[in-house]
Amino acid sequence: MALAFDEYGRPFIILKEQEQKTRLSGLEAQKANVSAGRAVSRILRTSLGPKGMDKMLQSPDGDVTITNDGATILEQMDVDNQIAKLMVELSRSQDYEIGDGTTGVVVMAGALLEQAEQLLERGIHPIRIAEGYEMASRIAVEHLERIAQKFDFGPTNIEPLVQTCMTTLSSKIVNRCKRALAEISVKAVLSVADLERKDVNLDLIKVEGKVGGKLEDTELVYGITVDKDMSHPQMPKQIEDAKIAILTCPFEPPKPKTKHKVDIDTVEKFQTLRQQEQKYFDDMVQKCKDVGATLVICQWGFDDEANHLLMHQNLPAVRWVGGVELELIAIATGGRIVPRFQELTPEKLGRAGLVREKSFGTTKDKMLYIEHCANSRAVTIFIRGGNKMMIEETKRSIHDALCVARNLIRNNFIVYGGGAAEISCSIAVEAAADKYPGVEQYAIRAFADALDAVPVALAENSGLQPIEMLSAVKSQQIKENNPHFGIDCNDVGTNDMCEQNVFETLIGKQQQILLATQVVKMILKIDDVISPSDY
């Protein structure tokens, strides 16, 4: 490469042997695309399962994240290759739609690409491979519906939901507290769920964390926690049967919208101005008192004079509360957000049985708990942990558990985990391959082999002999015609996932297979990669 200048003095670069450089197309491009997708899959493969390893990711500004959540790992990786970005999108789609299984879907897509590469080298056309994969995915999804079992649960019988959430949390860094966290997640989801409509609004569940304490101190608050304290240290720290005024207007005199200037040339004028300002403050506080408010929560700040006046009028106040938190407080307490003092009425006040300020450790950190609300359909999961990274990873783990509980409420069918569902589907797809007379049967068999990649990865990550374990479990499933047998990752002593209570949601597993197949089909159909420099 050399730098040269044209007759106008503009620089340009001369690339040596540029005419010998060619753009990849056809079979070479397809193989390159498959290799890029497999590279991403190999990164996540070691993070699969309860014994999967964690990844440490460092951002450009030095922040460190430790996680084994597939979506988070790929989200924070700096990926340049366009095919690798498709794998990132694949994991993100699984996260948005299901919330769990983000690692497994990428591992499955990588296995499908690996099998496709072998078929390409045998001269099978990529379109025929893609069609075979599509047929096989339909067979697998239908087989999953046949082996799925209905899970009956209710507000009084939450054990099935807890067991399924525990399976999700088993592969996380928080697995030593998986029982407690699973119970918290299930109770939070049931608090905001509409069981008649089978609908769950996860926006009503606030997940808050504070460094300090231990993971076992994590609690479910039937109400809202706000990372604020009372605006004045002498205000009461506990208010029972609180009537809450939720304001988005500041405690300060009104300001003109245009530029203005006030000339004060005498003491009398200054006194008049000061009295007028004080009257504004008095009127604002009096309006709150007149409607019966015993606590004011304000989106904006207020100066020391207003704060002093509120304290003397015995009206506790909280300032600088965020907009999202205000909305949750309004939902929980049944109040209305008031934009102007003139619109404040007794009907617009929120109601809570107890509002208390809580201190943590020796750091003088304080938080406000709003509990026993009029409408308990807004809850907070309050996480404690030794450091910020632990809290962030716990938040991600609880998000997965919440999504699994939500999915079970929407569709209460489950399949068994530990690779049991994949092995059962692999056997079914392999058996169905002979019914297809065309070249597609090779792709269908390859799909069956790719399904085995998940149990193989689980066995590898657990320190077991992968081929030996897979063949033993597969023969056991065929011999006993029982789809419950999987990889004993935790070395319990039985391969029966029903006995181990290892469950996964049916819709989550079906979505994994469908999404992985769609993305692999897309990658196989790309035979040319054209960049802006090519035209």
* Quaternary status: single chain
Tell me what portion of residues adopts beta-strand conformation.
Answer: 15-25%
Helix content: 40-55%
Number of helices: 17
Based on secondary structure, the structural category is: alpha+beta
Principal-axes geometry comes out as globular
How far do the termini sit from each other? 21 Å
Compile the SSE list and pairings.
Elements: E1 2-5, E2 11-14, H1 26-45, E3 55-58, E4 64-67, H2 70-76, H3 82-97, H4 102-121, H5 126-147, E5 149-150, H6 159-170, H7 178-192, E6 193-194, E7 199-200, E8 205-211, E9 219-221, E10 223-226, E11 238-247, H8 267-290, E12 295-298, H9 304-312, E13 317-318, H10 323-333, E14 337-338, E15 350-360, E16 365-373, E17 379-385, H11 388-410, E18 413-416, H12 420-433, H13 440-451, H14 453-461, H15 466-480, H16 497-500, E19 503-505, H17 506-524
Parallel strand pairs: 8-17, 11-12, 11-14, 12-13
Antiparallel strand pairs: 1-2, 3-4, 5-18, 6-7, 9-17, 10-16, 11-15, 15-16, 18-19
Helix pairs in contact: 1-3, 1-4, 2-3, 3-4, 3-17, 4-13, 4-17, 5-12, 5-13, 5-17, 6-7, 6-11, 7-11, 8-9, 12-13, 12-15, 14-15
Pfam family, one: Cpn60_TCP1
Function: Molecular chaperone; assists the folding of proteins upon ATP hydrolysis. Known to play a role, in vitro, in the folding of actin and tubulin.
Protein name: T-complex protein 1 subunit epsilon
